[in-house]
Specification:
This protein has about 170 residues and is α/β, with parallel strands linked by helices. It is about 35% helix and about 20% strand. The chain has one domain: Spore Coat Polysaccharide Biosynthesis Protein SpsA, Chain A (Alpha-Beta Complex), CATH 3.90.550.10. The strands form two sheets. The chain has a six-stranded mixed beta sheet, with helices on both faces. It has a two-stranded antiparallel ribbon with strand order 6-7. The longest helix is centred in the last third of the chain and has 14 residues.
């Protein structure tokens, strides 16, 4: 039996400077039926301490005993996920408050869809370096000329699809 509708999964490694903003962006979601699962992969900074400050029943924190790397950590996060849907959030990323609401609505309006995606805005030192308009133009170019590019932070997947294809990451 599943718990929350959406499992938000986050692997953290040496993102002490950013991880609280990432967590806060999940806590600020207008859609509330979610769980947040975070694994700290033996950060050498104070990421784990920053994450531990969140004493919320919806936030599950796991401290890895040894560094597993991103692929094995991601697999463990998927094993822990209980939701019907899985959303990936990087520990140095953050979401707009209505991100989960819009993606749940999208998936429920197209039940046969296995996943949906969002655009990203990239920032460095507090300034946008890639705006939505620029990203749209780049996406069109990549889709037509090279290959489609999907930002991991925008991925929202149906757990049944993940289980069925047994992604070997």
């Amino acid at each position: 039996m599943r718990g929350s509708k959406v499992s938000v999964i986050m692997a953290s490694y040496n993102h002490e400077k950013y991880v609280t903003r990432a967590i806060e962006s999940v806590l600020a979601q207008t859609y509330h039926d979610w769980e947040l699962i975070i694994i700290d992969d033996c950060s050498s900074d104070h990421s784990a301490e920053a994450i531990r400050q969140y004493q919320d029943d919806k936030v599950k924190f796991i401290q890895a005993k040894d560094n597993k790397g991103p692929i094995r950590t991601f697999n463990q996060l998927l094993e822990e996920a209980q939701g019907e849907y899985v959303a990936i959030l990087g520990s140095d990323d953050e979401w707009y408050p209505d991100k989960l609401k819009k993606q749940v609505e999208c998936m429920e309006s197209i039940p046969e869809a296995g996943a949906c995606f969002t655009q990203s805005l990239w920032m460095r030192t507090g300034k946008y370096i890639l705006t939505a308009k620029m990203w749209t133009l780049i996406s069109i170019y990549l889709t037509i000329v090279i290959v489609p590019r999907v930002d991991v932070c925008g991925i929202f997947m149906n757990m049944e699809i993940i289980s069925a294809i047994q992604v070997p990451w």
